[in-house]
């Protein structure tokens, strides 16, 4: 099916600010609370949010096989379950409705009143109910940096790393949308040189710059998804901040992996940008040596050229960009991750989320975590307000942004913005 | 609130076979498909399943604050969300309805026709939608056995083990109810002495004898649950078989923990036995030395005396009991596990499941996995059909059972029974 919606020459009758992440070629999907306190599924063009539930009720999706309530839901899970063919029909139709030459909605003031919202009058929600969240560890630069710091610079990568897109299960219940503040976690850490742990707030709270993809559900329990078909199961992507408490992690992670050091929160950007919208930005993936086992060999191996940046905003409101990275650096592709995840028959459901792992580039200014940027705290980062950071401080806001661009179009993810609050205080009795 | 339902002297007008796991003092909760292909929430007495949705519609739960459709659902999540007070009101009422001296339902043939099913005409379903599944590692005997085999017998326990109820996230989407067959997983393993992995079916498929508890949702993101309040958040327990592929596990698990070696399937018994029903079987927990950090110190530290057994049934139909263990051996209590899980502010939801970790007792015949029972394959187990097992073979059925008993009453979990099928075969084209 041709994806008309990607046509770079198409223009829209809605205003789109210069350098917007959301031209008519994007058409992401999200869930929002309207000014009338109703939750609906929508999309975004420029600074307008569009109520797809209302559009559907008004008949704009005629002849597309959709249930009546598909967009009148709290989450996108059922829509994602409808599959790639339906996603494309809907995205193409939205593109037609808002085409500059289509006057149907453009000239219907009554309909526009119902369908259109200004971004500042709505509240973005989690776009999916995440059944299972998996985090990979697929940036060679990140794995090498961590291995160099914590183990042996000459053998920084574990023996399995070049053979397996290493991953592990994370916590779904603490995935929150951009704008939700989180608390500095408390827990056990082992002070240097001691044998007995102490309790208290983590002193080493860090972000991890990641992206995550969201899947649909088509394999049965026990059946693998082949690597060459894997992208058909991927609905789209979001920015992902995999919050981490390094001191808790170090003490707890042997032998079963990170747990409380990660599961206090993960923050995502609220608009899911479809894999379809990203097609113009395909680029070759880094060469793999050694060649992986056959079930991980893709006929065409490609990634996406997505520029990423991380900023820290301090309480005075000033923001400092501290990293510029790119999704294209990932050693393992999303298709390889999904093929690996299901090779044992693991069932994948609609709305499942899979994180890339920290996306570090080849140069120190492209590292995807404070751990790497400040090299374990040995090289503090200067911020615009004059202060320094080794890790994230209370009341700092971490902002991640991402976009693709070429000569014709810019497709972006908006941002994921999260404030770190001080630790929870137990109320004293009496 | 007094739990009348636990009164050991109460008798029921329904037939209850001798040594049944489901006397009127049990009253577990589950979800089943009726003879009319309708999914409903129910309980069980003897060999009768009881349709709680129908009972509620007929007015039997009058004066208990329940929504009309609370039992007309696919899962128990919403009922569990209603909280401990409601669970107790409902369980006490069920106990009254089926009391031998209560003639209301007993003498109403029309109602009985709607409400009662024979166990052999229904099909048990997953009782909850599991949002997040966590697996702990809380048997000291099991952790010591594994550490002895894979690391150093003199330092079998990791330095954190006595301080932390070590746990990690598992996969929710592959939790299946008793009776669902699973497939031998395929994946990467590293042959002994080699440096390059190979692909194929796991050769070392194992069970893990565990129990799991199911939570309700009352803490907010960022707020811990205190250890002394933790049990109020626990609805009940099931038997849990944490299927494992030892060869895949060994190659993949460093540094982020087990992943594909575990997430191909976990099997549970379908009736959730409430924590309330288990109260008569409280026993002291093993002493802890060193004393854990204050947030893990319980005023009253107790476990539950639950007898567990594992059997293997072969294709000729014969079954061999290969292990007898007990839940009371667990070093860390469920309350400690839940307090630890939330100390960093991690949000717990209704229907979340937390596994105990393999429950090994102190003697070789009480070990909870083939890995330990056959001591890495060095001591094969003899089965009644004359064959031997180091690990689980294709078409073997693994059965776990559990019950509590004292002089007055026996409360059981029924069983979790799972057949291991041969690996998935990719269909050849043409």
TrEMBL record, chains A, B:
Instruction: Give the matching InterPro entries.
Output: Fumarylacetoacetase (IPR005959), Fumarylacetoacetase-like_C (IPR011234), Fumarylacetoacetase_C_sf (IPR036663), Fumarylacetoacetase_N (IPR015377), Fumarylacetoacetase_N_sf (IPR036462)
Q: Which residues bind substrate?
A: 137, 151, 249, 253, 358
Keyword Endoplasmic reticulum listed? The answer is no
List residues of the Fumarylacetoacetase N-terminal domain: 25-127
Tell me which residues bind Mg(2+): 242, 262, 266
Q: Give one GO molecular function term.
A: fumarylacetoacetase activity
Q: Any idea which positions bind Ca(2+)?
A: 135, 208, 210, 242
The Fumarylacetoacetase-like C-terminal domain is annotated at 134-418
Location of the active site: 142
- Superkingdom, according to UniProt? Bacteria
One annotated GO biological process: L-tyrosine catabolic process
Pfam short name (any one): FAA_hydrolase_N
Q: Which cofactor does it need?
A: Ca(2+); Mg(2+)
EC no.? 3.7.1.2
The UniProt annotation puts the region (Disordered) at: 175-195
Cite the annotated pathway. Answer: Amino-acid degradation; L-phenylalanine degradation; acetoacetate and fumarate from L-phenylalanine: step 6/6
Keyword line: Calcium, Hydrolase, Magnesium, Metal-binding, Phenylalanine catabolism, Tyrosine catabolism
The text of the family note is:
Belongs to the FAH family.
Q: What is this protein called?
A: fumarylacetoacetase
- What is the gene name? fahA
